[in-house]
Design a protein that fits this description.
single chain; alpha/beta; seven-stranded mixed beta sheet; about 10% strand
Length: about 1050
């Protein structure tokens, strides 16, 4: 399956949740069950298809329809009737109508719990293309064919059944799937009620309007069979050991029937659409799947919209709920799952309504998963008896009801979880010893849903998988204090040692051994029930006060003992850290986080510290945008972290002394289908051509990496060639830095060949690579063909005038390059003349860096001529050349006429007062230049006065750099006078001059009235304490200055204290350096 482009959408909102806690929980249950708006996540299974027409959208059957059309019309009307009628106002959710196209399941999706998938990927759904719902079953191109078997996956609670229900409704209204004459929707909850079934009976169960020949007609027509909820199938599909069946009237086991339909042995013309959680979707061999899509979760905007829909009229409450979600990264990640977002929003809204103030510790916001679900449990009990002044019997009654429910639902939840059973029927309830009468209570209905199937038998399931896991943990927690056998096996053999700790150890061992992570969240909840806050929350209603609290330290040590040495940090190990967090035992994670902040992470490399680091990569705000692991990793630590580093968006591994063997490891990681890394920096390591080749091999298959930084290594020409060969194939890498890698002309030749074929690379850094005119000529030839490269850094090479001329010829043709850096390349006037000739024709270059070359006043004449003609260049850097006054005056004359240049750097060019006067005059007419750099030029007071005079009328310049420009008090006084009038300058740098006390006073007087200046640098200006105090006290009338530098002015300690106090009093928001 092909990779597709990502298009983001937003989820339609939910209804307003209000009323008592019990009413809020009931409203939430309705939303989760699909009784609310279209944005609900798990709609209730429809009732059996009625034999009577007509739905609310059809008043009468058209008399001209033939009998077959009449049957299909009745079927459409029946589907509309049970699907709830027409579309809501605003239409369907874009999140559900734009599905992510996938190339197949990743290892993470196949092997891990849904929560782990969300946490590991930081709540970011990864795909390059989407497909709209109306094109879901159509060919992707003119030469492809429609898919026969399609699978849509999504984590629990993301909206798979909602999507199916919306598709059915829109098909019945003729809006989507118009090429299907018949749609037959089935759920695995329906199919579970049968042991054996024929294909004939299967169709009739959904399409009872068919006559005797209905099955044959259906098989020949264009029919879509929908199978919703493969993860709820009671028997896993086994495609390896299923006997082929081609007789539609033969009764076979239901799982065999489904495998034969998917294989095409039965109804080969039939299109099949299966929905499933990711881990279960792997039961269907990839070779049988023609199209795979995924429903993404909420993005940040949609989380906000969901909560806004819950609380549309109370902005204060909404703001508080949003702040709590955003402040807790772990909670925020889970809120990308719509069903979880609803539950979290309901709990936080309830807390906000009942809090008496910010210091109300009893109703403090939940910090852990278990605290959140414990609050939900309390809400389900019907409110706070203590808050409402209820009598003691009411409290005892609630507590008794809670314990009874846990004993009933908890047993069902636990044994269902152990046996991977998520849908229950009456025989199951009897087998688990569940009292059916208890299930009818309002309290149980807050957790368990009852739904009718097509054969009129009831199916029960928890409103969300996480609620089943919470109830299972609560049951295990309360039962373990009296159980004398292993609760997982219910064996009759008593253990020699009893007690909670023994049972907890058994649960932890089983969770660590479960490769699919199905017990991970259960273990988190079990750990969380030991935390003091959860114990206080549920004391009396579910837990005995202080119950098992003596085991808390032992449990923490037991969990940490599960982190074994010399083993890669797996998802199970990271889950141990989640369990410690639930337990509120956070010392380990906190120590590692502090070491990261203090630069001491290199000393923490034990298995516990590695697991804590992997955990922090997921939940820490520090790593949210970039995981910076520079200067702290060894090869062993990196190797153990690889399974978790896969999912970092941006990874910085600079200066870790990594050698080629590490690149082999990283190459294998980047080659993995699960890899989500978009940017990786390996600067300043010890990578040679062998390591570069390993990375290059990964680029042939990697589809996520957009930026690779290899600066300051030693990959040489051979390493450059390997990377260049990969770039000819790779279509995702957009930025590559090979600065300081000694690739020479041969390496440049290889990169040029890649540029001629590549159409995605936009940034290429080749500074400091000993590239001469020959390599430059090859690069120039490539630029004549390439249209994608936007930035080429070529500084500190040896291209000379010959290379400059070659690049100039390329610029005449190239219409894509926007930034060219040729700093320190031995370019003289001849090379500049060629470049400026090209600049007269080029219409795309925005930035040109010619620092540290050999450009004289003659070359400046060519520069000036180009500036008079060119209308696109914005940034020109001529620092450290040989312009002198004559050259600078020519450029000044051009600036007078130029209307696009915004930044001009003339630092260290032997410019004196004459050129400064010319530039001052140019500034009076120019209306585009915003930054002028004249530092380290001896313009003196005369030149400073000329520039200052221009500032009185100039309304564009925002930054002026006059460091080490031989300016004394008269020049400073002129600048002060200008600042009193100027309203646009924001940055003034006068470091390294000699303005003295008189100059300081002039500038201080200007600061009293100036409101535009944000930064001023007066470092090393002989101000003395008197001058510095003048400046500091002047800030009382200035409310715009943000930073001032007074270092190197012989102020003394006492003066520094006085100035500091003055600035704190007069300008508390201003930062001062002394």
């Amino acid at each position: 399956m092909r990779k597709q482009e990502l298009r983001m959408g937003r989820e339609a909102g939910q209804g307003h949740v209000a009323g008592s806690p019990a009413e809020q929980v009931k409203a939430l249950m309705d939303l989760l069950a699909g009784k609310g708006s279209q944005g609900s996540q798990a709609p209730q299974t429809p009732n059996r298809t009625p034999d009577t027409p007509l739905g609310p959208h059809s008043n009468a059957l058209p008399s001209v329809l033939c009998p077959a059309d009449l049957k299909i019309q009745r079927h459409r009307d029946a589907l509309l009737s049970r699907a709830g009628g027409g579309l809501e106002v605003g239409g369907p959710s874009p999140r559900l109508t734009n599905l992510l196209l996938m190339e197949g399941l990743t290892d993470l999706q196949l092997r891990e719990h849904d929560f782990t998938q969300v946490e590991a990927t930081r709540g970011i759904w990864h795909s390059t293309r989407t497909i709209t719902l109306d094109r879901l079953f159509l060919p992707l191109s003119r030469v492809s064919i429609p898919p026969r078997v399609s699978i849509t996956i999504g984590v629990a609670g993301v909206g798979k059944t909602t999507l199916v229900r919306d598709f059915i409704r829109r098909w019945a209204q003729g809006q989507v799937g118009k090429h299907f004459s018949l749609v037959l929707p089935l759920t695995f909850r329906d199919l579970n009620t049968h042991e054996k079934l024929s294909a004939d009976t299967l169709v009739r169960s959904v399409f009872p309007h068919a006559g005797e020949s209905g099955v044959e007609g259906a098989a020949l027509a264009k029919v879509l069979l929908i199978l919703d909820g493969l993860d709820e199938c009671k028997t896993p599909l086994d495609f390896s050991n299923t006997v082929a069946c081609t007789d539609p009237k033969k009764e076979i086991q239901v799982d065999h029937l489904i495998t034969n339909i998917i294989r095409g042995n039965l109804f080969p013309e039939l299109s099949v659409w299966v929905t499933s959680r990711p881990s279960t979707a792997g039961q269907i061999p990839g070779g049988l799947v023609d199209r795979m899509t995924e429903i993404r979760g909420f993005n940040e905007k949609e989380i906000k919209e969901c909560l806004e829909q819950m609380y549309p009229k109370d902005q204060v409450l909404l703001g508080w709920v949003l702040s709590q979600v955003q402040a807790n990264r772990a909670l925020y990640l889970m809120c990308t799952i719509p069903a979880f977002c609803q539950l979290a929003g309901s709990v936080l809204g309830h807390l906000c309504r009942h809090r008496r103030g910010p210091q109300d510790t009893e109703l403090w916001p939940p910090r852990t998963l278990c605290e959140l679900y414990s609050w939900y449990f309390r809400m389900a009990l019907g409110g706070e008896g203590q808050e409402k002044g209820k009598a003691s019997p009411r409290i005892e009654q609630l507590a008794h009801g809670g314990r009874k429910m846990v004993g009933t639902l908890g047993r069902l939840a636990f044994h269902g979880l152990v046996k991977q059973k998520y849908v229950f029927y009456e025989p199951d309830l009897k087998a688990f010893g569940v009292d059916l009468a208890v299930l009818q209570s309002a309290l149980c209905s807050c957790f368990l849903r009852r739904e009718e199937t097509l054969v009129s038998s009831a199916a029960y399931c928890f409103a969300h998988l996480s609620l089943q896991e919470f109830m299972a943990a609560a049951y295990y927690y309360t039962t373990s204090k009296r159980a004398i056998f292993d609760l997982f096996t219910e064996g009759s053999m008593s253990w020699p040692r009893l007690g909670f700790l023994t049972h907890f150890r058994s649960a932890a061992q089983r969770a660590m051994q479960a490769e699919d992570g199905r017990l991970d969240v259960f273990l988190r909840f079990l750990s969380g029930l030991l935390s003091p806050r959860v114990n206080a929350l549920l004391a009396g209603s579910l837990l005995a006060p202080g119950e098992h609290q003596g085991s808390r330290a032992q449990v923490a040590e037991l969990l940490q003992g599960c982190l074994r040495p010399n083993v890669a940090v797996s998802a199970r190990a990271v889950n141990v850290l989640h369990c410690l967090h639930e337990l509120q035992h956070t010392e380990l994670a906190r120590n590692v986080e502090e070491a990261m902040e203090n630069g001491g992470l290199a000393g923490l490399n034990g298995p516990r510290h590695r697991a804590a680091l992997a955990y922090l990569l997921q939940v820490s705000d520090t790593f949210a945008q970039e995981a910076n692991l520079s200067l702290c990793l060894s090869q062993d630590v990196l190797q153990s972290l690889l399974p978790q580093l896969l999912y970092c968006q941006s990874l910085r591994l600079d200066a870790n002394q990594f050698q080629d063997p590490v690149m082999e490891l990283l190459g294998s990681m980047l080659s993995g289908k699960d890899c989500r890394i978009q940017r990786i920096s390996l600067a300043e390591n010890q990578i040679s051509n062998k390591g570069a080749k390993a990375l290059a091999r990964s680029l042939f298959v990697n589809r996520s990496l957009t930026a690779l930084d290899l600066r300051s290594n030693s990959i040489g020409p051979q390493g450059a060639k390997a990377l260049a060969d990969a770039l000819k194939i790779n279509r995702t890498l957009a930025s590559l830095s090979l600065q300081g890698n000694m690739i020479r002309d041969d390496g440049a030749r290889s990169m040029a060949e890649a540029l001629a074929a590549n159409r995605t690379l936009s940034v290429l850094h080749l500074q400091k690579n000993i590239i001469g005119p020959v390599g430059t000529q090859r690069m120039a030839d490539a630029l004549k063909q390439n249209r994608s490269l936007k930035e080429l850094m070529f500084s500190s090479n040896s291209i000379g005038d010959g290379g400059a001329k070659a690049l100039a010829e390329a610029l005449k043709v190239n219409q894509g390059l926007e930034s060219l850096d040729l700093q320190s390349n031995s370019i003289s006037d001849a090379g500049v003349a060629a470049l400026m000739g090209a600049l007269c024709a080029n219409q795309t270059l925005l930035s040109l860096n010619l620092r540290e070359n050999s450009i004289s006043s003659e070359g400046a004449q060519h520069l000036a001529g180009a500036l008079c003609t060119n209308s696109t260049l914005k940034n020109l850097d001529l620092t450290a050349n040989l312009l002198h006054d004559q050259g600078a005056q020519a450029i000044a004359a051009a600036v007078t006429e130029n209307h696009t240049l915004t930044s001009l750097h003339l630092q260290w060019n032997f410019i004196q007062a004459g050129a400064a006067k010319a530039l001052g005059q140019a500034l009076q007419f120019n209306r585009s230049l915003t930054s002028l750099d004249l530092q380290e030029n001896a313009i003196g007071d005369e030149g400073a006065c000329a520039v200052a005079n221009a500032l009185k009328t100039n309304t564009v310049l925002t930054a002026l750099y006059l460091q080490v420009a031989s300016i004394g008090a008269p020049g400073a006084q002129a600048l002060g006078e200008a600042l009193s009038m100027n309203r646009t300058l924001e940055i003034l740098d006068l470091r390294g001059n000699a303005i003295g006390v008189a100059g300081a006073k002039a500038l201080a007087n200007a600061l009293k009235v100036n409101s535009s200046l944000r930064r001023i640098n007066l470092q090393e200006n002989s101000l003395g304490m008197d001058g510095a105090i003048c400046v500091a006290t002047a800030l009382s009338g200035n409310h715009g200055l943000q930073h001032i530098n007074l270092q190197g002015n012989h102020i003394g300690e006492s003066g520094a204290r006085m100035i500091s106090e003055a600035i704190k009093t007069n300008a508390p928001s201003c930062t001062v350096e002394m």
